[in-house]
Design goal:
The protein is an alpha/beta fold and about 425 residues long. It has two domains: about 170 residues, Rossmann fold, CATH 3.40.50; about 220 residues, Rossmann fold (3-Layer(aba) Sandwich). It has 13 helices and 19 strands. It has an eight-stranded mixed β-sheet, sandwiched between helices. Strands 2-1-3-4-5 form a five-stranded parallel β-sheet, sandwiched between helices. A two-stranded antiparallel sheet has the order 6-7.
Length: about 425
């Protein structure tokens, strides 16, 4: 695959050397396009030694080959890491005052930018507006990490780890494909219809309160986005998620477990669904009765009583899908086990029991809790299959990395 690696002038430019090494070791043909400022941090000989190719940095070099047009036209992927606030601004406003921004304008392949800057610059309204505009135009923006910045500063704006940047970037290109000049592509899920659930269901108690959970939907959205990148038609059933819908996905918004069950069942019963990935955190219970008015506190002297809320079980959606397909092998069913571990077992032993109980084709298990997995950008997941003790552990890494591992396993089973 032909990759253009753009590097803009920030201190994090040194990390781009590791990004370059990962791309070349994976067998990709990488052309580095540094800005003039980037070359003050890392010199051209370093890029040339690591890529094995001449560095392209100026529109006036190799003029007969028209590099400011050719590089973008012929690339299968353009990745900018790091992307400074200045680079984001110039790209958002369509400036083409150097080779890198010219390449961004001519590219018709996936474009990925990994911002890196001080927290104040990242949070400035101008930068936020530029990022929103780039995303609106289809550019994939990798959220910066939080951590140590230049000097003693700490906060959001740190360049993500090279492994996560590469995983996110390669995930935008459908598997086994390259892009033509029109941006068309096919992948290993081309022609398949998959259903992905995401987020956390909410079970209303009264008009203002509900029973819920901490799921943000990030993992489910990563799974849906990866399926779309690989060419699938994706129906994304999302429960209470405040994220942008991934490109190429058909959104089906729901709130409760019963609504999610109905949406998934309708899609499967409609026929043609090849796989269902149940990444949503579905509430096990719901209130037996919904209060039409807000439940009030009592106000009598010395009365500190609280209402008793009776709960009833929600349906087991995954088990229902397994039962409905009977002895058939389609649709392929993937379950999730969000476990904390307890007195009866650790995360993996509980996950094995759940896999046996559910009867699905693949179970993705991870440990959850306050500040762990739910709402986070990184995770560690364990992939379990029936009939084998083998476990594939993915991470710690990005949720995109986990999504890629899931479809790497599922796609061959759908052929």
């Amino acid at each position: 695959m032909r990759v253009v690696l753009g590097v803009s002038g920030g201190i994090a430019a040194y990390k781009a050397c590791l990004v370059l090494r990962l791309l070349t070791e994976a067998g990709h043909e990488v052309t580095v396009v540094p800005t003039a400022a980037a070359l003050r941090f890392v010199g051209a000989p370093t890029w040339e030694a690591l890529s094995g190719r001449p560095v392209a940095s100026d529109v006036w070099e190799d003029v007969p080959q028209v590099p400011h047009v050719r590089l973008g036209q012929q690339a299968d992927l353009v990745l900018v890491a790091p992307a400074t606030a200045d680079l984001l601004a110039r790209a958002a406003h369509g400036l083409a005052d150097d080779l890198l921004t010219s390449t961004l304008l001519t590219a018709r392949c996936p474009v990925v930018v990994a911002p890196a800057m001080h927290t104040e610059m990242w949070q400035h309204p101008a930068t936020r507006a530029n990022v929103a505009l780039l995303r609106e135009r289809g550019v994939h923006v990798v959220e910066p990490a939080s951590g140590r910045l230049t000097g003693a500063d700490t906060g959001p704006g740190r360049l993500p780890e090279p492994e996560d940047i590469v995983a996110a970037a390669l995930g935008t290109v459908p598997q086994g494909s390259t892009h033509d000049a029109a941006g068309g592509a096919t992948g290993d899920l081309s022609g398949r219809h998959v259903v992905v659930t995401a987020g956390g269901t909410r079970e209303p108690l009264d008009p203002v309160r509900y029973l819920g959970n901490r799921s943000s939907g990030k993992q489910g959205y990563a799974v849906a986005a990866e399926a779309a990148r690989r060419g699938a038609r994706v129906s994304l059933v999302a429960a209470n998620v405040a994220l942008d819908t991934p490109p190429g996905c058909d959104l089906v918004p729901v709130e409760t477990a019963l609504e999610l069950e109905r949406a998934v069942t309708d899609l499967v019963d409609g026929g043609g669904v090849d796989a269902v990935v149940m990444a949503a955190a579905v509430a096990d219970f719901r209130p037996a009765r919904y209060a039409e008015a807000k439940i009030k506190k009592t106000h009598g002297d010395g009365d500190d009583s609280a209402p008793t809320i009776e709960l009833v079980r929600n349906p087991d959606i995954l088990a229902g899908l397994v039962a409905a397909r009977g002895g058939a092998t389609s649709p392929y069913l993937v379950g999730f086990a969000a476990e904390t571990g307890d007195g009866t077992g650790d995360v993996l032993s509980l996950a094995r029991a759940k896999l046996a109980r559910k009867g699905c084709d693949l179970l993705v298990a991870n440990e959850v809790g306050v500040g762990r997995t739910f709402g986070q950008d990184s995770t560690t997941a364990h992939l379990l299959r029936p009939g084998t003790e083998e476990i594939r552990t993915v991470g710690p890494g990005s949720k995109t990395l986990v999504a890629q591992a899931i479809w790497d396993h599922v796609a061959p089973s759908l052929r």
